[in-house]
Design goal:
The chain is mostly helical. It is 78% helix and 0% strand.
């Protein structure tokens, strides 16, 4: 019964997307620039070693997670707005624990972010990315994006607890999102990074989500993809638990 109440948050997010679908298409602009301009140019230069895979294909999972992570991390601004308008007090009076509310919010944020998988495929395939479209590859990719985005949404909720204004929240998000992106294997392999950045990338959840996507959609290594998804799932469960504990402080 509690799970059904949690899924109400997901249903609410789907209703928002249905009433404003233009948001999905406007988010395609940045991936088009990354894949179409940056990816195509770097593919011709061949300056970054990507093994047997061309750079355009290599960068596609990284761009997918870059755009997905920004959507998930920005989710907390809704909580800041709800706190300012008084709506959040009513939400917290629901007959659900703070953990279940956080879980519902995290799944809702992940659902919104999952739409980027379709957007990236529509952008990357015509440009020449050699993506595996087998059902098991797409299923693993969807699970990887969903699980990773749920954890990042929970991280966004934790930040929203401590940020009192929307302007301050967005400033913090911008300060976190891009370093997470560049300190991952999104646009270059971990092996060519300087040692300090390499160590940071090993603790970066984006590294494991992107590797799971790359294993599924580029290499067809499904077991390796599943292994990385399990690592991401451990991160997401931990962050959602922490966010559930922190949520009680949001109206103090």
């Amino acid at each position: 019964m509690s799970l059904r109440k949690v899924l109400v948050f997901v249903e609410l997010e789907l209703r928002r997307l249905r009433h404003d679908p233009t948001e999905v298409f406007t988010r395609a602009v940045q991936p088009i620039l990354w894949i179409g301009v940056f990816g195509t140019a770097m593919s011709r230069i061949r300056a970054i070693p990507t093994g047997s895979v061309d750079y355009l294909t290599y960068i596609t999972p990284g761009v997918l997670m870059q755009s997905t992570s920004f959507i998930a991390m920005a989710y907390g601004i809704m909580l800041v707005w709800e706190r300012e308008s008084g709506i959040l007090k009513k939400v917290l009076t629901l007959p659900l624990s703070h953990f279940m509310i956080t879980l519902g919010r995290s799944l809702a944020g992940a659902t919104r972010a999952l739409t980027q998988l379709l957007v990236i495929l529509i952008v990357a395939l015509p440009l020449g990315a050699k993506i595996i479209l087998a059902p098991q590859a797409l299923l693993l990719a969807a699970v990887a994006v969903f699980v990773g985005a749920a954890g990042l949404t929970a991280l966004s909720i934790i930040l929203a607890v401590f940020m009192k204004t929307r302007e301050r929240f967005m400033g913090i998000i911008q300060a976190i999102t891009m370093p997470l992106f560049f300190a991952s294997n999104a646009i270059y392999p971990v092996e060519i990074m300087p040692l300090p950045i390499k160590l940071i990338s090993l603790g970066n959840p984006l590294t494991y989500v992107i590797q799971a996507l790359r294993d599924a959609l580029v290499y067809g290594a499904y077991l390796e993809s599943l292994h990385n998804i399990c690592i991401v799932a451990a991160f997401s469960v931990s962050v959602i638990t922490l966010a559930g504990t922190a949520l009680r402080r949001i109206i103090e």
